[in-house]
User: What shape does this take?
Amino acid sequence: MKKITLRKICLSIGITLILLSLVMLILWQCNVSGNSKRIYEYVHTIESLIPEAQAAVIEPRADNKMPSLNVQGNNFIAIMEFPLADAAFPVGASFEKADAYPCLYSGSAYDGSLIIGTSNQNGQLEFVKDISVGNTIYLTDMTGSQFTYTVSDIQYSKHADNQALFSETADFTIFVKNIYAFEYIIIRCNAAGH
Assistant: This one.
């Protein structure tokens, strides 16, 4: 009698855990889908508000601060495009929003010191493992200046500190928090014409 009751309790707990896991998976998928839709809407809105993209190169400027555009209460400095995945993302002006979309960590596209941080969750850079050396990435600022970059190096790090991120040889660095491997993927790029 005791064994039957214990078996029923274990079976009930097992079924409950499986159902909870399914509910959590469904909620996670809804969150990813909702965030992907918001990202698409931000990109679409930004594209409709900025001038048509024109090729740009890194060059000395008096002011390297990238202008921002406010869309639905969020400030953005650029649109980042990955032709490899036919994907585009808004780039936030403040790193505190990096869980919702890629954001400026430091630097500027204008002087070749730009660092952007993001993750591979919530509809962001889920294709990061497909990126390889030689791939092209476009970054269009709020004035319509479009910078073309080529991926020159990919590194993996347990930390995304200044020592790991800053590079004398890269014009553009993207770091992606890989939530599945508990590591950061650091993508270094060189600008066309630089």
Q: What stands out?
A: The first strand starts at residue 54 and ends at 55. The two ends are 79 Å apart (CA to CA).
